[in-house]
Amino acid sequence: MPQPALSKPLTLRGLTLKNRVVVSPMCQYVAVEGVAQDWHLAHLSRFAIGGAAVVFVEATAVEPRGRITHGDMGLWNDKQQAALTRIASLIKALGAVPAIQLAHAGRKASARRPFDGGGPILPENAKPDEPAWTTLAPSAVPFGPTWPTPQAATLEDIAAIKAAFAASARRALAAGFEIVEIHCAHGYLLAEFLSPIANQRDDAYGQSLGGRMRLPLEVVDAVREVWPQDRPLFVRISAVDGTEGGWNLDDSVVFARQLKARGVDLVDCSSGGVTPSTATVPSPAPGYQVDYAAAVRSQAEVPTMAVGLITHFSQAELVVAGGKADLVALGRAMLDDPNWPLHALGSTSEHDGQAWPLPVGYAVKSLHKIKAEYGL
């Protein structure tokens, strides 16, 4: 049998990934003052045990006002770094590459946790010990009609944001992470600067496509400067805003070319998030965002990662084997089955069970033999 595309290694700079399956950053909303808890250690380590090549820590704020909620993880102080060092070390020890997504929520910050109802923190719904805070955006334009008006970023704010991303990247390196991803998607701060819907500035950080790309590209430069040359740098984008008059796929191709020129190794292609309405984004269906990754990969000539309801093993295999993306990232499918990569590689390989961790692999092989014998 030919080697499955999903099982083929991929080398990016000085790092070789053992297969093409990645665990997406998935916010858990249970950090305490930005510090990862035991839940995060258990939650993330099971994906490494399950055979993923790369395990991403959730979107991690580079400063306090950049958190989505009070329960978001952060990386701006020593206590947060120490907790993440423990997680990165265990992920690596279990055979996966530890990765982290650095983020700033912009005007979508100061929100309630999804399981508390979501939406902005307002006087009528704020918990006694979790007050709202003033959010930051490219322009004083709220995310939606029920959201508070954010503060328009000054040039001093912009300089501080760049410095915060660089500082968090230094901490990520010290903590042992081997991939950093900059979050420029889903309507958060850097995506807000890219989008003509959220960015209505009349200075050098707005007005034109070049102006709107300026801050995200400067953040990339600042991070690449402190991130070692032998370690990959990813950027997640929303390939389209999904709202009329917003950021589009042609813009994403231009942006991806600029990212590649600045030392970005892979573009992670998602979509939407800049407004509550995403009427022009295809309705979520299996693989609905894969074509964005394919377009950016072919037109910008940069490696890409596909995301978005990639759930079945054969579906993921076709994405990689068909040259639509270099990696596939899974979120909810991994929550449902942390052993998804092992099951996927087993289902596409004549050597079923060979990749399972040593302490359990022998038992899994025995189970498979019994199931085959009895047609289970």
Describe the overall structure:
The relative contact order is 0.13. The longest helix is centred in the middle third of the chain and has 21 residues, at 155-175. Residues 348-353 have low confidence and may be disordered. This protein has helices spanning 38-49, 78-93, 155-175, 189-194, 209-226, 249-261, 290-300, 313-321, 332-336, 340-347, 358-374; strands spanning 10-12, 15-17, 21-23, 54-61, 73-74, 97-103, 136-137, 151-152, 179-184, 233-238, 266-270, 304-306, 327-330. It has a single domain, classed as Alpha-Beta Barrel (TIM Barrel), CATH 3.20.20.70. The radius of gyration is 20 Å and the shape is globular. The strands form three sheets. The protein has an eight-stranded parallel barrel, surrounded by seven helices. It has a two-stranded antiparallel sheet with strand order 1-2. It has 376 residues and is α/β, with parallel strands linked by helices.
Secondary structure elements and pairings:
Layout: E1 10-12, E2 15-17, E3 21-23, H1 38-49, E4 54-61, E5 73-74, H2 78-93, E6 97-103, E7 136-137, E8 151-152, H3 155-175, E9 179-184, H4 189-194, H5 209-226, E10 233-238, H6 249-261, E11 266-270, H7 290-300, E12 304-306, H8 313-321, E13 327-330, H9 332-336, H10 340-347, H11 358-374
Parallel strand pairs: 3-4, 3-13, 4-5, 4-6, 6-9, 7-8, 9-10, 10-11, 11-12, 12-13
Antiparallel strand pairs: 1-2
Helix pairs in contact: 1-2, 2-3, 3-5, 5-6, 6-7
